[in-house]
Amino acid sequence: MTPLPVLGKETPVAVLGAGRLGSSLAIALGKSGYNIAAITSRKPSHREWLSSHLATGIAVESLQTAANVANIVFITGPDADIEAICSGVKWRSHQAVIHCAGALSLAALDRARVAGAQTGGFHPLQTFPTIDSYDRLHEVSFATESASQTLLAWLHTLAEDLGGEAFLIESSQRAAYHASAVMACGLISGLTGLSAEMWEPMGIKRKEALRRLIPLLRATVDALDEKGLPEAITGPFVRGDIETIKIHLEATAHRSIVTGNAYAALALASLHIAKEQGGLSDSRFEDIKSLLSSEN
What we know:
The protein is an alpha/beta fold. It is built from 13 helices and 8 strands. The chain has 2 domains: 13-170, 3-Layer(aba) Sandwich (Rossmann fold); 182-293. It has helices spanning 20-31, 44-53, 63-68, 79-87, 110-114, 149-161, 174-184, 186-197, 206-226, 236-239, 242-255, 257-275, 282-293; strands at 13-16, 36-40, 58-60, 72-75, 96-99, 118-124, 141-146, 165-168.
């Protein structure tokens, strides 16, 4: 691999794959003073929208055209497409190619590496519900990885310029890191869906139950932010209320075996955190642990 030249805000940047993340990242980069040279989209209407939201750069359909005019290239397509996108471009030395996937190792960029380019990872720990969610990059953590210290330093500066902070990750750590992110985001949403469906016997549909649960969710997130763990955990597990837990297990299992198992498994996996509050004796901890284990 050829060492990179000095990188700065003026270095031409391209974004390949302008979905929700790619579009939001490109806009955020532009607003932070970075030189966006090109961005790609297969849809003419989206290219037109991008052109109206970026002060510089061209919105094009061709991946190769975009890569040709940039020294730093972000691949922001779906995780399953990143390796194919990388393999479909003719790379050159003095380029840096970066993917924004959480779970993928840098091996997905091997075609660029073999061509002499430096490779890296830059994963924002955030969700992007729309193509103009650029404001969601503020106060975000970015998982960064690269064998090039020059590129790594540039990525860390970029994270700070976007209003966030960077931390180092190795490819071998990515599966656990990304699973953690999914547990704190997608699975929380799914768990909330299960919670809302528990209201159906009361004649309250999931959508209405969700509306009623959201204030509780917000208060929980606020407690996590303000108090941290284990203080933010509430409920029968920190109190050692085994009779209430038994009632919960019966109610969730009545809803469905899978829901009952999910309740028991989640409670069992997090019981050690609840114990850290100090209100759960060793004997009661073991009693609850045995009860939950019997449900799985």
